[in-house]
Design goal:
By secondary structure, this protein is α/β, with parallel strands linked by helices. The chain has one domain: 3-Layer(bba) Sandwich (D-tyrosyl-trna(Tyr) Deacylase, Chain: A). 20% of the residues lie in helices and 39% in strands. The protein has two helices and eight strands; from the N terminus they run E-E-E-H-E-E-E-H-E-E. Strands 1, 2, 3, 6, 7 and 8 form a six-stranded mixed beta sheet that branches. A hairpin with a 2-residue loop joins strand 1 and strand 2. Helix 1 packs parallel to helix 2. The longest helix is centred in the C-terminal third of the chain and has 17 residues. The protein is globular and about 45 Å long.
Amino acid sequence: MRAVLQRVDRASVSVDGVTVGEIGQGLMILVCAMQGDSKAQAEKLAAKIAKLRIFKDDQGKMNLSVKDAGGAALIVSQFTLAADLRGNRPGFSPAASPNEGKRLYEHFTARIAAEGIAVQNGIFGVDMDVSLVNQGPVTIWLDTDSL
């Protein structure tokens, strides 16, 4: 699985002008299931993200996890993280099938929540408008093949 994390002051996602997910301080997580991914990879990714110390402590050092900082997570499915860029027009065949992608996205979301982090979501498989204020900016890319 792949994910892009952004440390945010606030973030929201809307569909057809209606807000479907919204958080204050926390993480905006764009996540993509790849072909061959399993629940184990979703769990590994969730555990890593939950423990990442990318929030500032009282001394201004990145030393706190999202949970330690009292933050939440806004999780949005993002199949374009699987882009194959060998040509000028991206292909997305490395992404998991829609049914498998949705299953793993939901499992990933449940695992983040199980870590004690408040979760909001986008809607899988629909066009969404995402708004955020990136804090720092801090943006981190993760791939379970590299963890």
